[in-house]
C-alpha cells in the first residue's frame, strides 16, 4: 500500500523558522498516528537551509523536500506557488498544512486554486475522522464561524490534498529529538521560464513591540481597565511576571491600546502558562483566543461575568485595587 503523505510548509525569514511551522509538524505527527501508513514531510524552499531541514526532522518530520534555489530565500508569491504546485503534483500528498501567517494565508489560497482542491483557512482544530459515505479516513478541519458563535467542521472528501491553514500558537510543537533520523530530498525547480510579475525593491520590517503569541505570561486588559492609563499598571504587573500585555477588542476599539495586542477571534490566539484577564467580560470571541492557556485568572467586579465560567482562579473585585495590591505583593516577594 502506498504511503499517505502529510505535507507541512516550513516558513522561514532570514534563516529563522516561524514557530507555527514546528507547531504544524507536531500536529501532523498526531494526525499521522491516526492515518494508517502515513508519513510527515516538511517542505523547505531556499538555499543554505540544511540546518532548517535537519531541525524539521528532529522536530517530527520523516522526510524533508528541500527545493534548493537561492531565489526562494525571499518570498515571492507566484514563484513559491509554482514550486509548491510542482512538488505537490509529484508526490501527491493526502494533507497539506500551512501556517495562517501573512504569507501562508496568501500562498495557501494560490496553491489550492491551482490544484483545484479545497482549503479551510484559519483552523483552530484538526483531526482524522471516518468519511460517512466511503468509510475512508479524512481530515476534519475546525474553525470558528458566524462571528465566533459557532465552530464549523469542514471536510474535503473528494479532492487532494486536503489543505488547511492554522493560526500560530494554536498547536503544540514537539521538543527537538536529537536522535531522530530522516531523509532530505533535494528538488531543483527552474523558474527561468516564469514571466516576471513582481520587481523586488526592498524589505521594510514591520516594527512590532508585542510578542504576545509566545509569551509565557499575559496580563490582558478590557473595557474595565477604564482608559489608556489603566494599561500602565497592567504593564507593570506583566513586567514583574516576565510577560506581555494583551487586550480585548473593546479596549482596542476604544483606542486605548494598539491592535497588535488584541487577543481573540479577530486578534491573536495565545496559550501562555498564565493568562490574567482584567476587566474583561468573557465574550466568546475573546475566549476562543485564550482557552488553551494553562491557568486563567480573572479579575472582574461583576461576580456573574462569563469570564468566571472558564477561569481557574476568579477574583471578584475592582481591578484598580486588586492589581496594585498584586504588584506590591510581588515586589515584596522579589525584593
Ligand atoms: P465588556 O464586555 O464591556 O466588559 C468589561 C468588563 O469589565 C465587564 O465584565 C465589567 O464587569 C468589568 N469591569 C468594569 N470595571 C471594572 C473594574 N473597575 N474592575 C474589574 N472589572 C471591571 N473581542 C475580543 O476581545 N477579541 C476578539 O478578537 C474579538 N473579535 C470579535 C469578532 C467579531 C466578529 C465580533 C462580533 C466581536 C468580536 N469581539 C472580540 C468583541 C466581543 O464580542 C466583546 O464585545 C469584547 O470582547 C468585549 O470586551 P470587554 O470584555 O473588554 O468589554
UniProtKB/TrEMBL annotation:
PANTHER family membership: ELECTRON TRANSFER FLAVOPROTEIN ALPHA, ELECTRON TRANSFER FLAVOPROTEIN SUBUNIT ALPHA, MITOCHONDRIAL
Keywords assigned: Electron transport, FAD, Flavoprotein, Transport
Electron transfer flavoprotein alpha/beta-subunit N-terminal domain: residues covered: 6-204
Database matches in InterPro entries: DHS-like_NAD/FAD-binding_dom, ETF_a/b_N, ETF_a/FixB, ETF_alpha_N, ETF_asu_C, ETF_asu_C_CS, Rossmann-like_a/b/a_fold
One Pfam family, short name: ETF_alpha
Name under which the protein is recorded: Electron transfer flavoprotein alpha subunit apoprotein
Gene Ontology MF term list: electron transfer activity; flavin adenine dinucleotide binding
Cofactor note: Binds 1 FAD per dimer.
Swiss-Prot/TrEMBL cofactor(s): FAD
Organism from which the protein derives: Thermosipho atlanticus DSM 15807
KW Nucleotide-binding (keyword) present: no
Gene3D superfamilies: HUPs, TPP-binding domain
Single GO biological process annotation from the record: fatty acid beta-oxidation using acyl-CoA dehydrogenase
Residues that bind FAD: 248-249, 262-266, 279-286, 300
Family that this chain belongs to: Belongs to the ETF alpha-subunit/FixB family.
